[in-house]
Every structure is written in structure tokens, then in C-alpha cells.
Amino acid sequence: MSSQKRPWRNSLVWRVTGNSVLLSLGIIWLVGSALFSQISTGIFEEKLSNSISDSQSSLRSIQVQLAVAQFQNDAGIRKIVDQMISVASISGNTAGREVALLHFPVVRPVKNNYERTSNLLSTKSIPEAFRTKVRTASGLQWSRTKIVFLGGEKVNGIAVGGTVEIPNSGTYELYFLYGLTSQENTLTLIRNALWFTGLALIFLIGLVTWLVIRQVVIPVREAAEIAEQLSAGDLGRRMEVHGENEIARLGISFNEMALSMQQQISRLENLSRLQQRFVSDVSHELRTPLTTIRMASEVIYASRSTFSTKVARSAELLIAQIDRFERLLADLLEVSRFDAEAAVMVIEPVDIVQLLRRTVDYLHPSRERIINIISDEDSILVDADTRRIERIFRNLITNAIDHCEERPVDITIVESDDAVAVGVRDYGVGFQEKDSHRLFDRFWRADPARARVRGGTGLGLSIALEDAKLHHGTLEAWGRLRRGAHFVLTIPKVAGIEMATHPISVVPESELSTIVNPEDSEEL
Amino acid sequence: MTLIMVVDDDQDLAEMLGIVLNGAGFEVDLVSRGDEVMDLFRAQTPDLVLLDVMLPGMTGIEVCREIRAESMVPIVMLTAKGDTHDVVLGLEAGADDYMVKPFNPSELVARIKTRLRRQISESAGGLKIGDIAIDQLAHSIMREGKVIPLTRLEFDLLVALAKEPGRVFTREALLNEVWGYRHATDTRLVNVHVQRLRSKVEQDPENPELIVTVRGVGYKAGVPGTKEQ
User: Fold this and answer.
1) Is the pLDDT of residue B103 over 50?
2) Nearest-CA neighbor of B191 among A389, A349, A468?
3) Taking a C-beta distance cutoff of 8 angstroms, is the pair A483, A427 a contact?
4) For residue A352, what is the nearest residue in chain B, using CA coordinates?
5) What does the pLDDT look like over B104-123, one tens digit per residue?
6) SS3 for A237?
7) pTM higher than 0.90 for the full model?
8) CB-based contacts of A409: which residues, under 8 Å, 6+ apart?
9) Alpha-carbon gap, residue B179 to A61, rounded angstroms
10) Calpha distance B221→B228 (Å, rounded)
11) Angle ∠(B213,B214,B218) on CA atoms, nearest 5
12) More confident call, A188 vs A368
């Protein structure tokens, strides 16, 4: 089945599952990134406020110590500064705090330079722009930075800076640097956890959708399969119904539909069977007495020379009307067989050209000269029901002879790859263009006032059309008053195959050129 | 006198058939029930049986089968239904020919005469088809000294084909020659009888060698050993 070849396109289960996985992927991505950015902002803010308050208290205590130290000598001050730096770098309440003490930039070297950094901290850790900001602004300033060590190590961090006055030396900038390593580790952990949860969620959502949709789709698929079997003719198939949900209701209504369809069809079949039976019975009941009448009339007719003129003429009329009655009965039975769809086809290879010649010979042995058979081929083999094709020929030829007014009748046979067409063209009374479809109606006569054509039952063309349809063929008619008629039978060469071509056009070639002639159309 | 047994449950039709057949110079026995046929048949040994399909007691198809089981007498079925099904059933049961009611009495007489006709051909005797010898005088065929029983119609069909080996007979030509039809397109008659004849004379009826089908045209006598088509 094709659904196995392209599951993504043809299976509802896979499509719905795929769509829900894609949608939840989007949603989880959005929620996850929002969550992550909120968490990381929170962690950073916390660290920042801690760092600032920590720096504030350290700076204050250092300023106090230096204020006290202004009466000491240089060595004393240096000692205090050293102590101050080492204490600041280890006693912070946050691990990993580094300290840098930098002199304001000056033109000439300062006498007592106390510039210091803790733990091999490189002064590159403090960007120049930030230093300018610290120098110009009052109070504590902060900035994100990259903490650089002399060994080359780099860590993301926060720098908080303020100014201090050192006696006999000038104004210094004091920086506290806080590494963000542990916060980053936490964030990495959180991010990984988010990724894992998201992916697991997506997988679970896909799985759940797949399971749920399967529950809905399986009964639907079952319904589709059963519908296919129903339409293939297995009318007894039903869906299994479990529970009372919507799917069960689908099953119940589906089964009800199938049941009513089955009943309707079997009712129609029954009707058709009754009709066939009736046709068959009528046929039998009428034919047996008709046979007796027929034989009796033949016996009477055979000895008509011994009767008076009146009785002899009556015998002639009797036998002619019995003939007509027989034909009418046969045609009526055939029509009712078509109506009951009880017509049986006996398909065998038939030589259409030979069959046509035989039919013409049989129907009008003495009038052969007015019927011309035009065929390039001596033999065209077709799969068809000989009896029916012969009957179509007989009906068309009889019809043409009846209406040709002694002018010639042309019968053309043309074959194509898949079809063969037989056109019967007469140049007699013809019929009005608007009647070209009604011609095939039962008992239809072009002009009711016109005398009945001898021998016709009024059913011939209608039966011929049904015979053509049984062959999957067509029977078309073209006609103009006083310019004659053209009937074209087209049947496929191989039984049951749809024809792509129509070798003969129903509008005769001789008429194609006159269609544009306005004088001719006025006549109509 | 030639005796014809008419089996029909419709009294009037049977009587009318009697009048017509008498007029044509035949003697007639009338039977109205299917289950009465066999006793009378054995007692009278008619030359031909006219058999209606729908009969009380026993259907015409069954009667036909029973007669065929013990005799090669020509059987012509009379049917009120032109439906393929009935006709084929009758032919398969062993009927040689059939007529659909209402039929033309002169046509009926012509067909009966064809079925009764003894073909006296000038070249009577030595016809052969494959390994089968046809004795036209004795109206029998033999393969390797053993007689193969055939109905008269089957014999006529085989002779018609054997007389002109190589000629392809259309079904219509065979209907004309063997059945005496003047005009007919019911080729089922030919098809069914060719099948039955094959089942009697062919070594392998599935792959006929004596009576060969020429697709779309008809049949011809074949030469065994030379595979055609």
C-alpha cells in the first residue's frame, strides 16, 4: 500500500505526531530560554548586590585604617597597605575575591608608590574605560569584566571600584574583583537540566500523541477498510463497536448505513429478479399460443387458393399481422430484458465486415445495388456479441432502407487502433436536428401523422442503442430534413475497453462544408 | 414411414404440430409428460424427437439426457425462451438442434428433414481424418479398429470437415451445411457441438488436433502432429 511507502504524507498518525512534536519543540524552546534568562539574570543580580555591599564594607574599613595611618611614616603606611591588601583578598565573605590598588595616572613618578594586586592578578583585568569612570564619579562603581591572571588564566567576573587617599602618596583606585565561576557552573548545570527535560518532554509528547491519535485513527482506518469492502460488494461487513464514545457512535451509524444500503440493494436485486422472472414467464406464456396460431395460420394460408377471394385475403393479412406481432413481442421482451438489466453478452471474435455483408445480403438480396459497402479492409476482427451486432446492423439498415426513398445507402466501415465504426448514410427524408436524440426513444415517430413504415416496431433504434451500450460503444445520429440521415455505431475492438478514438464523425463529410453556408441553414 | 415423437405439454400446440408434420409426410407420436417419454421411446423407437424444454414430470433437459444415454436419435429442442442459458443447457444435454417459439413451420420441417437426411455421397467410403477412418455407408467411424459412437449430427459435422481438409469453415457455413439453416447467427450451436465432437474423437480435447479452431473465422480439419497456432 502507498501509505507504507510515504508514511509522513499518507498516515494521519505520523502527521499529527510530527506536527505536535514540532509545535511542542517551539513552545519548550521559548519557555526554556525565558526561564534560563530569568534564572541567569537573578543569579547575576544576587552576586552583584553581594559584591557591592561586600566591597562597600571593605572599602569603608580600609578608608578608616588609612585615615588613622596618616601620622605614621612611609614604612608604616606600606605595612598597613600590604596588610590591608592581603586581608581584603582573603577575608571577603565571598571566595575568590581579588583586590587591586592602582594609583591615579600621573605625569611624573610618585615617590611612594603603593600600587598592589593580589594573587598575581593582572592589571589588564580592569578596563581603562571603567577606571576613568571610577576616577570621575563619586562613590562605588561596578562593571562586568574578564579577570586576567599573570599566568594567562581568564575568568568572567565583576569589578567594583572606589577611591582611597593614601597619606604622602595621593589618590588611589581600589578595585575588588569577584569571579563568576561558581555562578557559571550553576548556570551550566541548570541549562543542561533544561535541555534534558525539554528533550524528554518532546519525546513523551510525541509518544503520547502517537498513542492517543492511534486510538482515534485505528477505528477510522477500520471504517475505511470496511467501506472499501462494502463498495467492492461484500455487503455483510460491519464495524466492531466498543463502549459509548464518539468512535462507537461512528461505528453504530456506519453499521446502520451499511445495513440500510444492504437492504436497499437486496430489495432492488429482488425487484430485478422478479422482473426477469416476469419477463421469462410472459415470454413463455405468450410464445406457446403464438406458435400454435402461427402454425394454424400457415396451414390456412397454404390452402388459400381453395378459398373465396375475401377469405384468401384475410388469410394473407392474418399471416402478415402475426409476423408483425411476433416481431413486436420479441422486441418488447428484449427491451424488458434491458430494463431488468438481464441482458447477457456472448463475447467472441467476430469479423465485422463479413457480418455486415451477410446481413445486407440477407435483408435485401434484390436491392443490393442501392446499398454500397465502403471498406478498406476485407476483414476486421472485433470481440463482440455476434447476435447483438447483427441486430444493430439489421435495425440500422432496415431503418435506412425504409427512409431512403429509393436513393442509395452508403455503409462505411473504418477501424482505428482501439475501435471500429460503422456509418450508415442515407439521402432520404432525414429528420430535424432537434430530434437526433429523441430518435432513440421507444415508439418515437418523427411525424405522428405520417403513415407507419411497414414492418417497423418502433423499438429498433432503442434496442440498437442498448446493444451498443452493452458493448461500451456508442450509437450516434445526425440528420437534416430532406438531406438524409447518418447513423454511426462505434464499438471497442476489445470487449470492455474504453475507446479513445471515434474513427467516423457523425456529421457526414459532405455536410461539413455546407454547415457554414447560410442559405442552407435558413432552410432549416 | 418416418416416426417423429412430439413431446409438449400444450395439447393444442402438440396437435397443431401433428397436423403440420403429418402434412409434411411424417407419422407422429404425441407425448405430454416428461416422465412418460422413456417408456414410449423404447417401445416405438422414433426416428426423431421434438422436445419441449418445460415439461411436467421431468424437464426436457433431463429427458434429453436420458434419451442420449441410450440412443443416438436426433433430438430437436423446442424452447419458449431465447435465453442463452436454456439453449446451451439443452445443447449440452445432447440436443442436436433447437427451435425458439414461435417458429416458422416450414423452417421446422426443413430442419427435421436435414436431421433425417442420409448423406449418400458419391465418394462413399474411404474418408480419413487423422487416424480416424470414416465409413460413410455404415455411418460409423473407427480408430484402430474400434468404433466410436457418434450421433448423426456429429457424424455429419465430422464428414463435412473431413471432406474438404484444409478448407476453413465459418460457423455460418457449418450451420448451413450441417444444420440446414438458411440464415442464422447463433454460432453457439456450432461451438457446443464442436466441443462434444472433440470430446469423442480427440486424443486430448484440451489441445484439439483433428478439429482446429481458426480464431475469429471458424473451424477446419487439422493434421495431427503439426501443431497449429
Assistant:
1) yes
2) A349
3) yes
4) B216
5) 888 899 889 888 876 555 55
6) coil
7) no
8) A370, A371, A372, A397, A400, A401, A424, A425, A426
9) 140
10) 11
11) 80
12) A188
Asked if A126 contacts A148 with a C-beta cutoff of 8 angstroms, the reply is: no
Q: Check CB contact under 8 Å for A381 and B103.
A: no
Percent of chain B with pLDDT over 70: 90
Mutate which: B7, B9, B15, B16, vs A, most A CBs within 10 A: B16
Q: Is A351 helix (H, G, I), strand (E, B) or coil?
A: strand
Q: Which of helix, strand or coil describes residue B14?
A: helix
Where does the pLDDT of residue A490 fall: very low under 50, low under 70, confident under 90, or very high at 90 and above? very high
Chain A, 109 to 148: residues with Cβ < 8 Å from chain B are none
Q: What's the order of all strands across the beta sheet hosting B127-129?
A: B127-129, B132-135, B140-143, B146-148
Where do we find the cell 373465396?
Answer: A308
C-beta atoms of A390 and B185 within 8 A:
yes
Cβ of A354 within 8 Å of Cβ of B13? The answer is no
Q: In angstroms, what CA-CA distances link A166 with A106, A172, A173, A509?
A: 15, 7, 10, 123
Residue of A nearest to B88 (CA): A346
pLDDT tier at A88 (50, 70, 90 boundaries)?
A: low
Chain A CB contacts of B80 under 8 Å are 283-284, 287-288
CA atoms within 13 A on the CB side of A235: 10
Sorting pLDDT into bands at 50, 70 and 90, what band is A368? low
State what percent of residues in chain A have pLDDT above 90: 22
Beta-sheet strands, E only, within chain B: 3-7, 27-31, 48-52, 75-79, 97-100, 127-129, 132-135, 140-143, 146-148, 169-170, 211-214, 218-221
A296–B16 CB contact, under 8 Å: yes
Q: Greatest CA separation found in chain B?
A: 55
Top residue of A280, A292, A346, A415 to mutate, by most chain B CBs within 10 Å, is A292
Rounded to the nearest angstrom, the minimum Cα separation between A452 and chain B is 25
Nearest to B216 among A283, A358, A381 (CB): A381
Reduced to 3 DSSP states, what percent helix, strand and coil does chain B have, rounded to the nearest 5? 40, 20, 40
Smallest Cα–Cα separation from B95: which of B118, B124, B72, B128? Answer: B72
Phi, psi of A167, rounded to the nearest 5 degrees? -55, 140
Of B16, B172, B188, the CB nearest to A295: B16
Q: A294–B217: do the CB atoms touch at under 8 Å?
A: no
CB atoms near residue B204 (< 10 Å): 8
What is the Cα–Cα distance from A381 to A65, expressed in whole angstroms? Answer: 125
pLDDT by residue (tens digit) across B12-35? 999 999 999 999 999 999 999 988
Task: Report the Cα B62 to chain-centroid distance in Å.
Answer: 17
Please report, in angstroms and rounded to a whole number, the separation of the first and last CA atoms in chain B: 48
Between A287, A348, A362, which is nearest B102 by CB?
A: A287
The continuous run of DSSP H or E covering B227 comes out as none
| CA distance linking residue A68 with residue B50, whole number of Å | 153
H/E segment holding residue A65:
helix A12-68
Contact B181, B138 (CB under 8 A): no
Which residue type occupies A146? K
Which residues is A101 bridged to in the sheet?
A: A116, A174
Chain B hits for A351, Cβ within 8 Å:
216-217
Q: How far apart are CA B90 and CA A127, in angstroms?
A: 117
Q: Rounded to an integer, what distance in angstroms lies between the CA atom of residue B7 and that of residue A152? A: 127
**In this structure, are residues A116 and A62 in contact, taking their beta carbons and an 8 Å threshold?**
no
Report helix, strand or coil for B85.
helix
* Parallel, antiparallel or unpaired: strands A484-492 and A474-480: antiparallel
